[in-house]
Amino acid sequence: MDGELRGLGTALRALARDGIAVVRVLERHGFGTVESGQLLAGTASGTVAGVLYRGALDDTAVPLVAAAVAAPQTREAHVAEHAALEAGLACAGGATLLGHPLPPAAADALGAALERGTPAALAATLDGLAALVLTGPELADVTGSLGSADLDAEAADTARARLRRCATVTERTERFLLDLWVPVPSVLIVGAGAIGAALAAQAALLGWTARTVADVDETVAAVTAFSDADVLVLLDHGPEFDAALIAGLRGRGFIGALGSRHTQAARRERLVAAGVTEDEFARLYGPVGLDLGARTAAETAVSIVAQVIAVRGGRAGVALAASTRRIGG
């Protein structure tokens, strides 16, 4: 799903200058379990990006997105049992679709966030006449307005509260429709061994994706393409992997490396000699993981993912009893 969102983000930015609209699900019944945060975007000329309910609503949604560039409107969509099953949905259903324009600045901000893999939220009044985009790790960057300061604040507070759950959501309140996209971390494990296996298992438990590689060129290519949601955990101490660290420290994502303090000091010397600046080096989490007193491979994996969670949440990873911030996000 994250790959699809990044593609949608790229399309939003490309289409923004031409004037676009988006179609979102205002209400639904049936269809079984469906993913939140689904969005269809398009232009008046018929160019579209994204998808709603595996394309089952295209007969209604595609014409709606083209028409909504000029003015917001709603339409009813109904999908029979056979068509729903052919599309991969669990059962028949119906939906009220809201199509509304998305101003260029808002479309560009939303597209950039989805493309980068950072949290993003889109709120719109239920009539589609106004839209607000929130982006960034804590949704602090604001583009657009719902028409009043109090409504903007209510939408922002709701989005940020949902962000603490670390899950993509679609929610309708009495005053606005909210879509929130939270990227799922993808962990690149470089090197084999018990810690790598435990880390992959821990990532799976959290609903993250993980893959293990051992080749330097493959690692560099993967890290170069990182979004902010991606995670590198370098288990291999070989100097040849410095190239991957350099690419990561000059790019995006969480960059972590295992190793003793002696290993980290030697690594630092090599990276600085290779031209890595102090600001770039400050992005390296090494030795990676929180100080939990981990002794086993499984415990080390817990300490690593705990640090990733803390960094994503803007926290220091201290004991809850020692923190004055909100518990649970």
What can you see in these coordinates?
37% of the residues lie in helices and 26% in strands. A hairpin with a 5-residue loop joins strand 7 and strand 8 (141-145). The protein is α/β, with parallel strands linked by helices and 329 residues long. The relative contact order is 0.10. It has a five-stranded antiparallel beta sheet with strand order 3-2-1-5-4, sandwiched between helices. It is elongated and about 65 Å long. The mean pLDDT is 91.
Which tags fit this structure?
single chain; alpha/beta; 37% helix; 329 residues; five-stranded antiparallel sheet; 11 helices
Structural class label = alpha/beta
Report how far the terminal alpha carbons are from each other: 24 Å
Which sequence of strands runs across the widest sheet? 3-2-1-5-4
Arithmetic mean of pLDDT: 91
Low-confidence stretches: none
Strand content: 25-35%
Tell me, briefly, the overall form.
elongated
Secondary structure: helix percent: 25-40%
Q: Could you describe the largest sheet, including whether it forms a barrel?
A: 5 strands, antiparallel
Query: What is the β-strand count?
Result: 15
Order of helices and strands: HEEEHEHEHEEEHEEEHEHEHEHHEH
Rg (C-alpha, Å):
22 Å
How many alpha or pi helices? Answer: 11
